[in-house]
Amino acid sequence: EAGVAQSPRYKIIEKRQSVAFWCNPISGHATLYWYQQILGQGPKLLIQFQNNGVVDDSQLPKDRFSAERLKGVDSTLKIQPAKLEDSAVYLCASSLAGSGNEKLFFGSGTQLSVL
Amino acid sequence: GQSLEQPSEVTAVEGAIVQINCTYQTSGFYGLSWYQQHDGGAPTFLSYNALDGLEETGRFSSFLSRSDSYGYLLLQELQMKDSASYFCAVRDRHGSSNTGKLIFGQGTTLQVKP
User: Fold this and answer.
1) At A102, is the secondary structure helix, strand, or coil?
2) Does the distance separating the beta carbons of A41 and B106 come in below 8 Å?
3) Residue A67: which H helix or E strand, with range?
4) Nearest C-alpha of chain A: how many angstroms from B79?
5) pLDDT per position as a tens digit, A23-65
6) Identity of the residue in B4, B41, B50 whose CB atom sits nearest the CB atom of A100
7) What is the residue-wise DSSP string for B36-100?
8) How far apart are CA A15 and CA B94, in angstroms?
9) In angstroms, what separates the C-alpha of B43 from chain A's closest C-alpha?
10) Are A20 and A84 in contact (CB under 8 A)?
């Protein structure tokens, strides 16, 4: 079974530039998550999709971050413009239906450095 | 709001037993999960407890006490490859639906020494 695919693996940009990350979840997984993980901290949920609808985006900085999940499969996360504090690993994860006892499957993440 | 607390670092020697505690505060509660993350790697699922008690999976066990809002991960017969960060996570309720966001603690870095 193929895992969660993310690209790119690494990205270096200057502040105020824009960047986009792509995620392809495990086939059949209805729930998709984007997490931000700053070095030395736990993953912080940015947005959670159930199919192509948003379940939670309460911690997404909507003035600069946006995410979409067209057709309930692939998803993209965009940052525009980037700030220094956005340097982090952006993890995409998926699960079957986002219910209580499900485990999340994580991709390898995109390591973003904002200079 | 939701919060989870766990120790930042734990050190143990090969072959030993180590316990990583987690206390949580959430508006709703489905269960407590544990994830392992090696340096530079992705978090991987270890265990899930929805009911009080101990769940055992090989060398790893996880415990939950809902009345105390407390759980722990127990690692036995430690091996060098167990050196990693361990995160507890809780899924809160989202309204009346069966979905909820999964919130992670700050993580406990386990260093296993020879």
Assistant:
1) coil
2) yes
3) strand A65-68
4) 22
5) 999 999 999 999 999 999 999 999 999 888 998 899 999 999 9
6) B50
7) EE-TTS--EEEEEE-SSEEEEETTEEEEEETTTTEEEEEE-S--GGG-EEEEEEEE--BTTBS--
8) 35
9) 6
10) no
